[in-house]
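Task: sequence design from structure.
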């Protein structure tokens, strides 16, 4: 009888040891988000001013990207979101499903070099494609702004703003010869600089109108709308307790940070704390 009891207890003990424990509850119900504004490593030429990046496939740049991963890993991300157009309702990136580490030696795009590299190294199975390009209105009606400026004699204002952006872009291009990728990204994520650039370009064009077409306003609400849709995709994709790194062109950082800060259930993680 005693042996039977001991055997039964031993069996129960072994069963308890082999039972898979449930996933731990998240530390908080808040979704923490780091918005990592980037320059385009393989610039597609879609912006008003396009910076020419050096070759991130060079061994030195690859080492710098590995060092950047160590910094971002300190955030303990559980999700990565990228500037790629959503293809499915689930928003999961098909490109990440097909990703192989060997892609890092071939594809210069920051989505691969930062987003996929980080997700892969952290063992994450969730990379979300949250971008939006088409909507009920024009997201970036810069041609309307130019036409209204020409009609009202304000082309000089636009030329001045573009010249400032070009000067900043050229400064970053020159800095590539002496700065690491982490340092270059620091230039694109400085909060005071983000605010200054947004105010200068977008809010600085609010007054451009030919009397019938409030083109400057259209530029502002179009850009706001695109970023609102992008953030809505992020809200849909995430769940309480997630820690998200959003890898996006730095031009989106102002509004994406705004939405994180102002949306209940979301909390902004300061990117510069990991880049300094």
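Answer:
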């Amino acid at each position: 009888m005693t042996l039977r009891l001991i055997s039964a207890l031993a069996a129960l003990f072994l069963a308890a040891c082999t039972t898979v424990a449930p996933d731990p509850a998240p530390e908080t119900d808040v979704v923490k988000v780091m918005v990592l504004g980037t320059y385009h490593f393989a610039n597609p030429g879609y912006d008003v001013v396009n910076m020419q990046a050096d070759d991130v496939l060079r061994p030195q740049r690859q080492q710098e990207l590995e060092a950047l991963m160590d910094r971002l890993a300190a955030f303990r991300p559980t999700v990565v979101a990228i500037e790629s157009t959503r293809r499915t309702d689930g928003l999961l990136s098909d490109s990440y499903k097909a990703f192989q580490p060997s892609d890092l030696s071939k594809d210069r795009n920051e989505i691969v070099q930062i987003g996929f590299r980080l997700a892969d190294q952290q063992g994450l199975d969730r990379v979300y494609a949250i971008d939006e390009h088409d909507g009920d209105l024009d997201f970036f009606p810069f041609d309307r702004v130019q036409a209204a400026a020409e009609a009202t004699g304000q082309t000089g204002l636009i030329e001045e703003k573009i010249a400032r952006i070009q000067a900043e872009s050229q400064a970053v291009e020159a800095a590539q010869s002496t700065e690491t990728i982490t340092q270059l990204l620091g230039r694109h994520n400085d909060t005071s600089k983000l605010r200054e650039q947004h105010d200068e370009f977008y809010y600085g064009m609010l007054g451009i109108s030919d009397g019938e077409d409030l083109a400057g306003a259209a530029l502002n609400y179009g850009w706001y709308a695109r970023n609102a849709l992008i953030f809505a995709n992020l809200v849909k994709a995430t769940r309480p307790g997630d820690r998200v790194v959003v890898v996006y062109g730095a031009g989106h950082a102002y509004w994406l940070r705004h939405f994180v800060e102002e949306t209940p259930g979301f909390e902004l993680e300061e990117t510069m704390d990991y880049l300094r």
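Confidence is low (pLDDT under 50) at residues 1-24.
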